[in-house]
Fold this sequence. Notes:
Blueprint (H helix, E strand, L loop, with lengths): L3 E4 L2 E4 L1 E4 L5 E10 L2 E6 L15 H7 L6 H4 L7 H11 L19 H6 L1 H24 L4 H10 L3 H8 L6 H8 L2 H10 L20 H14 L2 E4 L7 H7 L15 E7 L2 E11 L3 E8 L2 E8 L3 E8 L5
Antiparallel strand pairs: 1-2, 3-4, 4-5, 6-11, 7-8, 7-11, 8-9, 9-10
Amino acid sequence: MLLLGWLPAGIGWADEFKLANGNVLRGELASADEDGLVVKLDVGGFSKREPWINFSQETLKELARNPKAAPLVEPFIELEPEQIKAKEKQKEIVVKPVSERMERPIPKPNLAAAFITPIGLTILAVLLLANLYAAYEIAFFRQQPVPLVCGLSVLFPLLAPLIFLCLPTRLPGSEADAITVGPEAAGAGAVHGGAKAKTTSTFPAAPARGLSLAAASKQEAASAQTQPQTYTRGEFTFNRRFFETKFPGFFRMVPSEAEKDLVIVIKAVRGEYVGKRISRISMNEMHLQLQSGNASAEVMVPFVEIQSVQIRHKDAKG
Length: 318
């Protein structure tokens, strides 16, 4: 049996230290640390530092009785099965069931839930604005009341704009009446009252081949003295080329004999303008010189706002 004793210089053992391979070190314990121990041999000298794993279980258990050596040798001592089970029971964690826990509801994914999210609401708002913008453009293109078209588009998205887009362009009241007047009514009006029936010419007669642009302008102006010529949106595209080719005489500083008694009437969204001359023109707008008595003024009219253009005699009433 090993005897544990303390020498004045430190820990001392006076017996045998058995190794796992069967060798025995006889002497006293000279030094011990985490890497092993050194024995002062009886025959003289010191042994090399033997790791703890090289000692037998019997020697390790004897060393474990010393409180100072126990922390060094306990990791290398093999436990009995009963000791292992006891430690496992100490480490075992018992989870007790919760009896009053509420069950979490199972969410059911659907299409409506996707639009409740912030991204879904943003997409709906963008689609609504696009629907209203399309309704506004269709109302402007078809000459329909903007509040009516936009209001129905909110109640019936996509359907209402398509319906108004399929409808024909709505003409102003006076022009619609002029179109519906038949040849009999025009003749009767000439016999009884001598009144002039207002007609709308959508496609003016083409100038004869070989005539110059000025000659064509004179021919159109001469025919305009007898009856007004009206060009409406939907039947014509109002742009710079349209005004330069249809009304070249109205760009002159001094009107010719054919255009001196004619005026150009622009019906736009913001009102009706009666002008004597087109002073300036660009890709998106035109500047019309208005004549009111001896005073003159200039107004800018964007092409997108023009609803109709009419050429008539200055004394004729629209």
